[in-house]
């Protein structure tokens, strides 16, 4: 009888161990990181810039004498000047933005000279001319941001618009080439006019905060020619052939809503894995 009970218990123990071996434990469920939806930095921004313009006057012409012949200035030089401006723009997406800017070119002095005849009897003379100009430029611009590398985003851009160029009075004094005399100073009234303008830009912005970017760049500005001064004392009117400016600029952009937080979505529910029976 004891042997029978021992055999029964041994059989039950073997069956139980075999069943337990077939009942594999459930594999651990890996934790999924939360999905993050990052909003692109889009929206309106304000900008401000200052710069230094290396100007190049592309020449000047005027009507000389009673025969109304238009001739070139022998020399026509324009000093460099500072620029200051601002604007409002819109960041369309991470790669494209556009803005409307208004800039002021501070007073740049003009120095020129012409040759002709003066006095009585007429002798060969050289006239020394002095004036200055200022310019207001309104441009519509578009930029392509070339990707962000750390905190730096290089870009290229172009703009089109107009400039109001205002010349002050031109003063000239003609002196005989032999140094024998000089005529009295003659003043020609300055002129102002709107001219077609375009610009090409390149530079880089640097993330300072989540909604403020510093900007360092270069701008080439092309302004068409226009009226320069009026008629006086048998000379004029005159016009300039236009000017170009190579500008080094620094500034900043403030993006409204640039600090908006990324929105988080909870991970999808994963059903518990059922035990696997072998």
UniProtKB/TrEMBL annotation:
It comes from the Bacteria. Residues 1-20 form the signal peptide. Keywords: Signal. InterPro entries: Beta-barrel_OMP, OMP/PagP_B-barrel. The keyword Signal applies. Gene3D superfamilies: 2.40.160.20. Residues 39-234 form the Outer membrane protein beta-barrel domain. Coiled coil: none annotated. The keyword Signal applies. This is Porin family protein. It comes from Rhizobium lentis. The lineage of its organism: Bacteria, Pseudomonadati, Pseudomonadota, Alphaproteobacteria, Hyphomicrobiales.
